Amino acid sequence: MTSVAEPDGKAASMTRRLPLAARRELDWIGIPLIAAVGLAAYWLLPDDLALLTRIAASALFVLSLDLVLGYGGIATLGQAAMFGTGAYAAGILAVNWNNDPFAMLAVGGLAGGLIALVTGALILHARGLTLLMLTIAVAQIVQEVANKARDWTGGSDGLSGIDPAPVLGMFRFDMFGHTSYLFALAVLVVGLAVARRIVRSPFGLACRGVKEDPLRISAIGGSPKSYLVALYAVAGVFAGVAGALTAVTSGIVGLDSAGFSWSAEALVMLVLGGTGRLYGAVIGTAAFMGVHHILAANDPYHWMAFIGLFLIGIVLFLPGGIVSVTGRISALLRPRAAPGHEGDRA
Amino acid sequence: MESIFGIAVDGVAYGMILFIISVGLSVTLGLMRVVNLAHGAFAMVGGYVASYAAQGAGLPYGVALVVAVVLTVLATLPLERLLYRRIYGSANELAQVLLTIGLTFVIVAGMNYLFGPTLKRIPLPELLTGTVELGPKAIPTHRAFVIAAGAATLVGLWWLLERTDFGIRLRAAVDDPAMAAALGIRTERLYLATFALGTGLAALGGVLGAELLPLEPYYAIRYIVLFLAVVAVGGAGSIFGSAAAALALGIVDTAGKYLIPNFGEFFFYAALILILFRWPHGFFKGRTA
């Protein structure tokens, strides 16, 4: 696999040497910056820790979608299947056997990765509308199984009674959400670092190659489908961990965690922040959920109209497709992302 | 025996509703290659307008039906000019998905603003509330009406696309848009007419299916997955494919709900995955595939 990926990785990086080099100048600062902003928010917004925790866990989920869509070009509306599977796996583990938070994350990631591997191998031969439908169908089946396996998942009442043990045996999950938030932030930062390592690896570059020109990859001896299935499974691990993180920090898992609208919302957040760049997922999630928190407080339908108009505007008024959209938006957001959001939420 | 008959009637009626709504999506998808997630919203608009016309304005059922279809088409035609024209045939499915999801959200919010969040009904005329005798069995008149309307739609569409000048031009534009344009076929008008046809069918299905797919603001998001499933299974652009897929999925879903009620929608999506695994382009390979 690596011997195939190597030459292609070089080819891909050669053609994009300029943008990559230019980006690398700024890139090292990204993860520390997110960690610093996250920590600052902990002290500046002590009353909104529940929201901030949700943002951190959701950002990890949107990050997994970014891996699939931004680096593999797989348009999916079923990413919540992996999120929900991870959340339920972690929740069931905690209720029945072991409530160690790290064990929950590990099992959630494993479950998310496995379901992605199995379903990915089954559906990734399709393209376009068929693939979109298959991803939706997988998520609907996961949701339906979760709904019917009442004894394990609690059905439509949701799975409750998840009571995670103290982190490392030292830090208890308190009712103010201090531990939850710091734990979620730490997991997100580690997730970002791992994701960055993956997309920079020969494997990650090969996946980009598949996204840009699958024919060329197969011409030089690679198998586009196996790259995509592997990427789908890796992203499934991230989504599963994100689901498990929600289970750990919120203590409940509901049916909507595998729902169609959760997949669609993640897509909106990703596009808002920018596809194909990992920080975009975090910025988009923070912006989306921050604005949502403010607007949805009075009427959820106003919020829908707002986000709908925003989506239409993005597609129409930023010509050249989503790629240029994300470039411009992240150019707008990036320099003043941190202070801007602070102001929004305060 | 009794339940087999019930499954057949309800399954076929449900399948016909799915067919009427989905075939509009299939025709627009096949021609313009737009993954139109707002199609369910158009069906919902049709249902809401009919409900208002029947309950608020007191029009008889048939008139309300026509008014709903016409108004929905008139209301959505500007969208074709302003929005859809920019994403036709675009290779970028993501842009299509985002634009049409955005449009769906706006319509959902707008319908809620105009008509409120409660469940809307379209009262049936007395003519459609009883049962009709069919040999030894009696079936609800509304089901029979829906099945007949579906069959009429199927025949009408087949005639329109295979036997009329409009259909010939449309098929030419689907098979080779550049050549069709070069031959003097005005593809822009054709697209507009096809979009109107698709929207009209969606509105018709939304009105006829109000008993089976209840009208509420989240209708647009809740059922679009079903309509897309029918198109994916049937093959975009194929009328008979859509009919076969809608009937198959409708009967599978109804049978699953009758026989093993605990599993709800499970069988629908399991069937969807199996079918698409075996026939990735749908039962009938679409004209664009």
What is the percentage of strand-forming residues of chain A?
A: under 5%
What composes the largest sheet of chain B? 2 strands, antiparallel
Count of alpha/pi helices of chain B:
11
Largest sheet of chain A: none
Work out the number of β strands of chain B.
2
- CATH class category of chain B: Mainly Alpha
Task: Explain the overall architecture.
The complex is a heterodimer of chains A (346) and B (289). Chain A has 346 residues and is mainly alpha-helical. Chain A contains 17 helices and no strands. In chain A, helix 4 (49-72) runs antiparallel to helix 12, helix 5 (80-96) packs antiparallel against helix 6 and helix 13 (260-273) crosses helix 14. The radius of gyration of chain A is 20 Å and the shape is globular. Mean pLDDT of chain A is 77; it is low at 1-18, 319-323 and 337-346. Chain B is an all-alpha fold. Helix content of chain B is 71%, strand content 3%. In chain B, a hairpin with a 2-residue loop joins strand 1 (131-134) and strand 2 (137-140). The interface between A and B is large, with 45 and 47 residues.
Keywords, please?
heterodimer; A: 346 residues; mainly alpha; 77% helix; disordered N terminus; B: 289 residues; ABC transporter involved in vitamin B12 uptake, BtuC; two-stranded antiparallel sheet; 71% helix; 3% strand; globular
